[in-house]
Amino acid sequence: MLQVLLAVGMGALALLLFVVWRVRTDGAWALWWHDNYLERLRDFTSGQSRPMRILQFVQSAAAPGDANSAICAVDSYCANVEWAMNVGDKKGQILDAVVLAVRPRWVLELGTYCGYSTMRIARLLPPGARLVTLEMNQHYAQVAKQILGHAGLDTQVDLLVGASSALIPQLKKKFEMETFDLIFIDHWKASYLPDARLLEECGLLAPGTVLLADNVTCPGAPDYLQYVRNSPRYRSEYFPCQLEYLQVEDGMEKSVFLG
Ligand SMILES: C[S@@+](CC[C@H](N)C(=O)[O-])C[C@H]1O[C@@H](n2cnc3c(N)ncnc32)[C@H](O)[C@@H]1O
Q1: Which of 13, 127, 208, 259 lies at 20 to 30 Å from 100 by C-alpha?
Q2: With a 6 A CB cut-off, is 116 part of the ligand 1 pocket?
Q3: Is 214 a catalytic residue?
Q4: What pLDDT score was predicted for residue 192?
Q5: How far apart are CA 23 and CA 243, in angstroms?
Q6: 117 lines ligand 1 (CB under 6 A)
Q7: CB pairs under 8 A, 24+ apart, for 73-81?
């Protein structure tokens, strides 16, 4: 009997160690563990959504009107308390560098979530620049509005609620604008390629427009990469980095539209 219990205990420990190892080293396991299992468990125990927990932490930890303080609060919460799908501090530095290099007048973001990358972009924009961000989840958009308000950035950002495929064709008319200088692509990965093609069809790209796509390695957007790396209409460059708040390989792709 003791031998059976010992064998079962050893088996359970081995299984646990295997899961921990896979979660720490494999992107698909890490995303499943943090984005499904742990998030649902916390939602159940707290009676709140993860975006609401992030909002409450920002409101309690970040100085009102201070975007850098709000960004640090989100990073601190997501690195130490619970993971979330923001671009994060490390890839955020690549995003910052691209924003500063492009000095865009018009920026489009696909996928707002809680507004973390929106804050990173908005705080670096030159005077008079506009950032339009699209989010299809009404609850995430409500949270993002409150976080942007707390950070003092809500007047610089136009947050539109809806699916990118429906909103992109309306942008020119809605904002009386011609083309975007910078587009941060960070929504569901299967939409990267169709939306890049839609942006082309809608005439929203000009020679020199920069497309920066997150998570092209984890979870990955292979059809998008295949397109921008092989189309003569783009000059594309890969930036290796790690998945937000984890030691898992990821990357960003910067693609300049050539016309
Ligand atoms: C990875 S999160 C964005 C993270 C955010 N850019 C950041 O770094 O803080 C992806 C978001 O895109 C939204 N989304 C996914 N597909 C979309 C679509 N087709 N149109 C608009 N939003 C979409 C999801 O609801 C989710 O909030």
Answers
A1: 259
A2: yes
A3: yes
A4: 98
A5: 12
A6: yes
A7: 74/114, 74/116, 74/147, 75/245, 77/53, 78/54, 78/244, 78/245, 79/245, 81/53, 81/57
Domain ranges, ordered by start, for the chain: 88-257
Q: Is 140 in the pocket of ligand 1 (CB under 6 A)?
A: yes
User: Which residues lie below 8 Å from residue 25, measured CB to CB, with a gap of 6+?
Assistant: 247, 248
Question: In sequence order, which ranges of the chain are alpha helices (DSSP H)?
Answer: 2-25, 27-31, 39-46, 50-61, 67-80, 88-102, 116-122, 138-151, 164-167, 171-175, 192-201, 222-230
**Residue 106, phi then psi, degrees to nearest 5:** -125, 125
Nearest Cα neighbor of 72 from 135, 116, 6, 121 is: 116
Task: Choose, from 109, 244, 250, 253, the residue flagged as catalytic.
Answer: 244
Atom of ligand 1 nearest to the CA of 165: 19
Q: Closest ligand 1 atom to the C-alpha of 164?
A: 20
**pLDDT tens figures, 29-82:** 888 888 887 888 888 898 899 999 999 999 999 999 999 999 999 999 999 999
* Residue 189 annotated among the catalytic residues of the structure: yes
Tell me, yes or no, if 135 is annotated catalytic.
no
Query: Is 58:70 a contact under the CB 8 Å cutoff?
Result: yes
113: left (phi over 0), alpha (psi -120 to 50) or beta: left
- Rounded to two decimals, what is the model's pTM? 0.91
Residue 69, classed as helix, strand or coil, is helix
Contact 33, 23 (CB under 8 A): yes
Closest ligand 1 atom, residue 85 Cα? 1
